[in-house]
Amino acid sequence: MNENIIKRNELLAQKVIKGLQSRNMTGYYAASKEEALKTALSLIPEKSSVTMGGGMSVHEIGLVDALKNGNYSFIDRNAYEDRRTSMLLAYDADVFLSSANAITEDGIMVNIDGNSNRVSAIAQGPKKVIFIVGMNKVCSDVDGAMKRARNVAAPINAQRFGLSTPCAKTGACMDCKSPDTICCQFLITRYSRHKDRIHVILVNDSLGF
Length: 209
Fold this sequence. Notes:
Layout: H1 3-22, E1 26-30, H2 33-42, E2 49-52, H3 56-60, H4 63-69, E3 73-74, H5 83-89, E4 95-98, E5 102-104, E6 109-113, H6 117-123, E7 128-134, E8 138-139, H7 142-160, H8 166-170, E9 185-189, E10 198-203
Parallel strand pairs: 1-10, 2-3, 2-4, 4-7, 5-8, 7-10
Antiparallel strand pairs: 5-6, 6-9
């Protein structure tokens, strides 16, 4: 990666981390995927019950494999015939892993969900929530974050899941009411009432969608 981009990301990450701190959340900057993995594991005590939504970024830094191969109780929703069962287990987990569809420079996160299991677990339930967020998801403000979530993350995910939504065909949000829509619930996380619950690892890489 270009040195100027690296320096820019470092400076921008510090601004986001300061914003997170003002919102009772804790931020970290990882210069690489490897450093992000190390930071994430330092936040997860061994023997913890851990689960997640569908965050690609969590997979991309190697965290899922590390948990499966380590001394943790990883709740793999793909291992359940009835996925609802695994989703409900998330609410009582020690740690919930996620990414964000977008995050603002002052530390506000935006997430869109179809089944709503991910956004509901982020909002309430698990004792600790750890976000893995690539610097490609940082936006100037909430309006920009919403636009990114709707016009970048949502269309790509709709295509990834093979859904028949207008955005999957056009590449941009059409504000649809399609039966396949994944834009059912919008969660804006602007403050954490519970100290030490939400942790955000900003990664100097382009992760997820």
